[in-house]
Design a protein that fits this description.
The complex is a heterodimer. By secondary structure, chain A is mainly alpha-helical. Chain A is built from five helices and no strands. Chain A has a domain of 126 residues: Orthogonal Bundle (Cytochrome Bc1 Complex, Chain D, domain 2), CATH 1.10.760. In chain A, 43% of the residues are buried. The longest helix of chain B is centred in the N-terminal third of the chain and has 31 residues. The radius of gyration of chain B is 23 Å and the shape is globular. The chains are: A mainly alpha, B mainly beta.
Chain lengths: 183, 618
Amino acid sequence: MSSRFRSSALALALVAALCGCDREERQTRGKPLGETVPASASPDTVFPGTGKLPPLDPRAAAYEGNAAAISEGQRLYNWMNCSGCHFHGGGGMGVALMDGKWRYGGRIDQIAASIVEGRPNGMPAWRGKLTEQQVWQLAAYVRTLSGQVRKDAVSARADELSNTPPQTQTKREPLSPSDSDQQ
Amino acid sequence: MRRSIIVVASIAAMLAVALLFWALTQKRESDLGTSQFGGMSSSKAAPARAASPRDDGNWTMPGKDYASTRFSALSQVTPRNVGKLQVAFTFSTGTTEGFEAPPLVVDNTMYVIAPWPNNVFALDLTKPGAPAKWVYEPKPAAAAKGVACCGPVNRGAFYSDGRLYMNLLDNHTVAIDAATGKELWRTKLGDIQQGQTMTMAPLVAEGKVLVGNSGGEMGVRGWLTALDAATGRIAWRAYSTGPDKDALIGTNYRAPYPQDQGKDLGVKSWGPEQWKIGGGPVWGWISYDPELKLIYYGTGNPGPWNAEQRPGDNKWTAGIFARDIATGQARWFYQSTPHDLFDHDDINESILVDWPAPNGQRIPALIRPSRNGYFYVHDRRTGRILAVDPYGYINAYKGVDLKTGRLIPAPEKEPKEGRAVRNICPGPPGAKDWNPSAFSPVTGLIYIPHLNICMDMGVKNANYIPGTPFVGADVKMYAGPGGNRGVFTAWDPVARRKVFEIKEDLPLWSPALATGGGLVFYGTMDGWFKAIDARSGKLLWQFRTGSGIIGQPISYRGPDGRQYIAVPSGIGGWAGSIVSADLDPRDPTAALGFVNAVKDLKKRTTKGGMVYVFALPQ
């Protein structure tokens, strides 16, 4: 093995490790997060005359694209039977989550709001059944189903015999309506 | 270059021919299967007389009669003139969900029953264009759609004594005045918080309205309930699981086989407490014998799909009950699929016929193409099996033991946690799902619209959370041997063999209609409505409707004395949900794995909700 190869391998490993740190950042200290999920995350995109969607909920930053949050969300997605309705993103009793079509917004705080509030055509309201942290983790995972999250943060392997391609191969779907994707 | 292409093409063609030959011989062998009687009989089966009165030109119940023949005696439309059929009028329900319910026709009024929101339209057939006389809007809860496993469908209403009876998706049974559209009573029977819905069509007889629940994928506890037709009060309820007193199993109960004999099997054939969330919903068809005063119906699959979580036979799921209509007390039960591994509900139609036995005796029988792929002939007095044969391709079972009555499992196909099992046939919707067959007394044949679908299955632990799915399986379905996903089979229940078979590319999800003119009608999921010769299966006429057909065709006599044929067009249901619910074909497990078998459907049809009515030109 040449020393040049060895040093470039080392450099690569270092880069990977650094990326790893970033993608798995966890908040273990600091003030506890409030237990009210996004009131500001309106699913709407029309504001009479003028106006726009409020900025992204500040709590989102701790979960969006975070590998630890996403993998917890992936586990909960099966445990809480999300997969029983939405399957691995293709949908069934529930809507498809991999196609970039969002009735109630595809921003992480809008997804969290849909989980907490429920939606009138059959989406159950999970308020009080999941902790706020779990809701955000689920929302972070749901965003990976349509490829909204960087590939080094998602799991390369599903937790079950799903027949689905690994998520690292999921192409990013443009969000629709597109103006709900203001991050 | 060109020569090499020709060589490759001819090799491919030879291979294809060889494969086809192989497939055909395989099929023939499996047809012989468990045949018991070899001889052919010239005499035909005939519908049970008391359950199939003379045709008056109306269509008052989904099954046409209590024998569930789906046979109209009208004979103006024949193989000679069917080519001239044309549209007489159409009607849009305004819905884009799976449209399964047959329209009913009673004395020059057509009643169209829509999927959720379950509106009913009464159309005046005496006026040009059939304008609406009234519209009934029951406003069932929208949230019910979130717990309806396979689309917010409705399988029809029942007309009796000036009233229509039907179920709403959010677990109400209603009675409607057929003349005015006024709701006469509404009874709540279940709860969407527990994952229950109601999609089946009631059967009304002897002053009782018989209804059942849906939710085999939601951990519900299945039941059949009888309501008093006059008041809507509950007369009796028979659960499909639990102690004998809940299942209405008492002193009159005589099971034909030891597997279904014993005390409180609805508790003992489960792990502790599992029967409380064990499924067995009653979402299919009921037949009635007015002489024996017995109703016949099947129970749905046990839950969850992951069978490792529910050791035992799981009584009284995936079997068929005979009950006394007045009291609900069980007379007999036969479990077609003990400890179901593959979602093989047993809710398919039972057709009541007089069946000529090989010794010439005519036996009051019940014939049914079961979801597990076997065609059963039972003595309907006792439940004993008179004949059983595979009518589709099966490798998940190895036959039925006629001594014990028990289905013989294929251990190599049993899914275990952490192990994917490939090529299980038939898949979860079985060799045939809910869409009922038709029986023609003209030919003595039963016309079975069914499936040729296999699957890969992996099971995982299912958590029970009320009002959410309770399944525990990843499934991927695909076409069975031959590559066609649907089959239309004409079956001779006496000779116990296939008479003809039509291979359909798409799964067949529409029921069949047989007529006195010697025709059989059915629809395809890409919207073709077809008429075939009842004897030969030859395609004689077809019409492309606006959306895929999964609904039941009917035939009636119009006010002008002409024969009409009507069919609902509107894709949806489990098989069509990829279109009606806009699912994503890139996930093979979507819609419990059905999406993978119909990945092309979005290109072949679009949503709709329309009744098409056809007649010969005047």
